[in-house]
Design goal:
alpha+beta, four-stranded antiparallel β-sheet, 5 helices
Length: 97
């Protein structure tokens, strides 16, 4: 998912500690992920709590869903956000040419 790649880049720019991003089905099962996890489509990240405090509002403002778990933040995209990001990327690409 392109919105998941953008999410990863934004997290890096914000200085967030990404502890999980893309997962294979086998790894997802090993860590107890749900079968339809956005991690399987590179559409979610898990973030260390200590690096994320005060920065989750930025991700929410960009349209990402932020879920606070007991030991990390889980941030994921959505199909509607994916469509918006694809459109934005296409417009930037066309503007460059």
């Amino acid at each position: 998912m392109i919105s998941g790649v953008v999410l990863l880049l934004v997290c890096r720019l914000l200085g967030l500690r990404v502890t999980s991003w893309y997962r294979t089905a086998a790894h997802n099962a090993e860590v107890g992920g749900v079968p339809n996890s956005y991690h399987l489509k590179a559409g979610a990240v898990d973030l260390g709590l200590e690096s994320a405090e005060g920065k989750m509002d930025v991700l929410r403002a960009l349209g990402y869903e932020v879920i606070k778990e007991s030991d990390h933040y889980h941030v994921e995209t959505s199909e509607s956000l994916e469509a918006k990001v694809k459109t934005g990327v296409q417009l930037v690409f066309l503007a460059r040419w």
